[in-house]
Amino acid sequence: MISYIEKMYFNDLLNRGGYVLDFSTYEFDNFTLNSVGIPLCETYNLSKGKSLNEFINEGDNDKVVKLLDDLLEYYEVRYYSEMESDDKTYNGTTYKSLYNKCKEIIGREKQYSSRFTKASEDLKKKFSSKYMNQQIDLMITMCTENPTEAIGKSKELIESCCKTIIENLGDNITESISVGQLVKQTLKLLNIPNENAETDLEEDRIMQKITGGLNGLSSGIIELRNHYGSGHGRSAKFNGLTKRHAELSVGASITLVRYLWDTFLLINENKWER
């Protein structure tokens, strides 16, 4: 996520006293419409600079990153000489320095988005179950469209993964078992040391810390779901959680599921090689 201070860097670089670079209102609305599907001035009924600020502060993070990236590309073409000079903004910072900071921020955000998408795509390829694929697709979409629902889907993904592994390894699943217990049962079947196992091996003790963290991830997701996620009645004043909370839950569930599923695949590969 782009922080408040980082957003100020973009404002200092792009906002020129109510204007955005050299755009007319018509040109700016066309630009933002083509970039993110929203004509900002028409939408906010404000000046170009104020409309951009409103969108940066309130808009979906992915769309904000997309628009700022496109604006930086425009700046590189139209303001090349300023970008390379030591000219300063009203607050004494050089445009060159501001541009470099903004470019670094956008690079970081795009890299994170790429990793997040790749993790979900890798996971989809590994699960053969159509239901699993649908869960992942829905979860990723819900991060933006319905963050509260995405948190509930995170819990369901872990539950589905663990049940799939347990059933494939021929073990029984107790009726009304909790997700935390499912994770522990899955870890045991996969021969992954858990926090309750006694061991003198340093490697196993390290793994116990890792699996303890994994159990903490699953427990945290369940708590988020219980307090804020789907399936629980809320008052009319309840606003739910934001995309950043949903992405934390979704990212954690994908991390846990990838680890469990990769271990399961490795066990199956070793069986076939024997």
Q: Could you describe the 3D structure shown?
A:
This protein is mainly α and 274 residues long. The protein has 2 domains: 4-111; 127-273, Four Helix Bundle (Hemerythrin (Met), subunit A) (Up-down Bundle). Helix content is 73%, strand content 1%. It contains 12 helices and 2 strands. The protein has helices at 4-14, 25-36, 40-44, 48-58, 61-78, 80-84, 95-126, 130-145, 147-168, 179-189, 202-228, 243-273, and strands spanning 15-16, 19-20. Strands 1-2 form a two-stranded antiparallel sheet. Strand 1 and strand 2 (19-20) form a beta hairpin. The longest helix is centred in the middle third of the chain and has 32 residues, at 95-126. The two termini are 47 Å apart.
What attributes characterize this protein structure?
274 residues, mainly alpha, Four Helix Bundle (Hemerythrin (Met), subunit A), 2 domains, two-stranded antiparallel ribbon, 2 strands
**Separation of termini?**
47 Å
Encode the helix/strand succession as letters: HEEHHHHHHHHHHH
Radius of gyration: 24 Å
Text of the CATH class of the largest domain: Mainly Alpha
How many helices does DSSP assign? 12
Beta-strand residue fraction: under 5%
Instruction: Determine the oligomeric state from the structure.
Output: single chain
Low-confidence runs:
229-236
Query: Could you name the CATH topology of the largest domain?
Result: Four Helix Bundle (Hemerythrin (Met), subunit A)
